[in-house]
Amino acid sequence: MTYVGAVPTTGDFKKLDSITTSSATTFNLRQGSVAVYPQSANHCIVSLNGVIQAPVDAFTIVNDTIVFASSLASSDAIDFILVLGNVNDIGTVSDDTVSTAKLQANAVTGAKFNADVISAQTALAETPATTDEMLISDAGVLKRVDMKHMMLSPVFAVEKSAAQTIATDTTTKVTFDTEIYDPDNTFGSNKFTPAVSGYYLLSAQVGISNMGDAKYNQVLLYKNGSSLNSKPMTIIVGSNTQDLYSRFTYPIVSDADDYFEVYVRHDNGNDRSLTYNQQTNFHGFKILGAGS
Which residues pair with 222 in a beta bridge? Predict the structure, then answer.
């Protein structure tokens, strides 16, 4: 790589401790009183009596010692010994310089993670937001997934807070005027529109007041204006003053723009009123996202 100006230096450069000479050829190599092991004589610059010595010819390196070719005298002075560093030893790397490509595959293991990475210090203090993310493995590839895809959402529940008249032998749409919860704003105009494709579980209960003997109360789920179930859901024989309830739990597959409504039908022979205050209700939630 070409640089403008000085080439960045790399290596584990060490200037060793001063050495007191004597009548000998071998001297210990120390830095801060700790033994130093140069890789070879060619990695050292040695000045003796003001003259730079030729590596290999004038001296060699044996472990943590320097061995001169000729015995020195106590009057000789080793001015300095500079160790230039080992092959591929770049010392301490600069901050923000190691890229992903420089890491060996599978080099980062669980043993290298600080225990505080996953601990009470990073625990969620409340329910995850829909923008929070989880890590999953997709055929061995780590991917981020928004929490909204992991939650039972959209979700809704509505009820009636007032009576509604249902004519006999007439399929009539049930109007729901009170939301119990609808955090995703998917219920409006008496219908549920998921806005998210997926698999859903929808349930409803509809009660009719003062039904007669051997009569039925039929509760129907409509999708995009057409009935998904057409059989009578409940048949009862009993007192003329007895309320009659029908209910369904229906698994469905929905596109984002599908919509669902609840209808009811009875054969009392007279107009009847729906029960209310949670006795007639409609609710549902997403089980899985599309393609799950």
Answer: 227, 261
- Sheet with 14-15, strands from edge to edge, namely 14-15, 78-83, 44-48, 51-52
CA distances from 214 to 118, 135, 208, 220 (A): 63, 57, 14, 19
Tell me the two tokens of residue 195.
């806005």
Taking the C-alpha atoms of residue 75 and residue 212, their distance in angstroms, rounded to an integer, is 127
Q: How many CA atoms, within 13 angstroms, populate the side-chain half-sphere of residue 60? A: 6
Residues paired with residue 244 on neighbouring β-strands, in sequence order: 208
DSSP state for residue 227 in the 8-state scheme: E
Could you read off the pLDDT of 10-41 as tens digits, one per residue?
567 889 999 999 999 999 999 999 999 998 99
* pLDDT tens readout for residues 36-92: 999 899 999 999 999 999 999 999 999 999 999 999 999 999 999 999 876 555 557
DSSP 111: G
- Tell me the residue type at 212: G
Main-chain dihedrals φ then ψ at residue 101, nearest 5 degrees: -65, -25
> Among all chains, which residue has been given the structure tokens 């007032």?
162
Structure tokens at 153: 């959402």
Return the SS3 of 179: strand
Domains, the chain: 14-83 (no CATH), 118-150 (no CATH), 155-289 (2.60.120.40)
